[in-house]
Design brief:
heterodimer; A: mainly beta; 7-stranded mixed β-sheet; 0% helix; 49% strand; B: mainly beta
Chain lengths: 120, 111
């Protein structure tokens, strides 16, 4: 079954770090880039960046540099998003998404999302 | 403030047609970058509805269609159903900038 399975919800204190995972299955992992999208409570979708699963090269959107690190473990077909120095405003649902198989740069497969709550 | 502007809300009666707009500029939609549309039902992950301006992935009903003209794109839903009530987002990847952008989203209410 073609899917992206994300890790469970996280509750963290301000200043802590969190590493989210996104495990791909049912397709050839290194043929499709993985993107990360944030959705704050009650808000819209915000593109964070992406990682080239063939080379491991990450690209961050402005505003998602520094504290946000994108990585891979191709041996387990998993992409990761690590966020350090967590702030209350990082509280959001984080989605991973696959860049499409149509060559159109859309996101044709999404994970179910990981909710990160940052609270003291 | 997104570079792609969507009306916050649109409503329509069951069976009617709803048109959701996504307005960009000459540097994105007007430059020819393809627009994609997603449906996000409450409490769920977004789902690709339209890719490449006007193409439907397998399994998406033909009640959903996309179009583009100038610096704007539109998603049209015909024969509205209660289950269409959701948030809809437009999206494009600006390969010149190497960055993707989403519109702010439109909440569709089926009256």
């Amino acid at each position: 079954q073609v899917q992206l399975l994300q890790s469970e919800s996280e509750l963290k204190k301000p200043g802590a770090s969190v590493k989210l995972s996104c495990k791909a299955s049912g397709y050839i992992f290194n043929e499709f880039a993985v993107h990360w999208v944030r959705q704050a409570p009650g808000q819209g979708l915000e593109w964070m960046g992406w990682i080239n699963t063939a080379t491991g090269d990450p690209t961050s959107a402005p505003g998602f540099t520094g504290r946000f690190v994108y990585s891979l473990d191709t041996s387990v077909t998993t992409a990761y998003l690590q966020i350090s120095s967590l702030k209350a405003e990082d509280t959001a649902m984080y989605y991973c998404a696959r860049e499409d198989s149509y060559g159109a740069d859309s996101f044709d497969l999404w994970g179910q999302g990981t909710m990160v709550t940052v609270s003291s | 403030q997104s570079v792609l502007t969507q009306p916050p809300s649109v409503s329509g009666a069951p069976g009617q047609r709803a048109t959701l707009s996504c307005t960009g500029s000459n540097s994105n939609i007007g430059a020819g970058y393809e627009v994609h549309w997603y449906q996000q039902l409450p409490g769920t992950a977004p789902k690709l509805l339209i890719y490449g301006d006007n193409n439907r992935p397998s399994g998406v009903p033909d009640r959903f269609s996309g179009s583009k003209s100038g610096t704007s794109a539109s998603l049209t839903i015909t024969g509205l159903l209660a289950e269409d009530e959701a948030d809809y987002y437009c999206h494009l990847f600006d390969s010149g900038l190497g960055a993707a952008v989403f519109g702010g989203g439109t909440k569709l209410t089926v009256l």
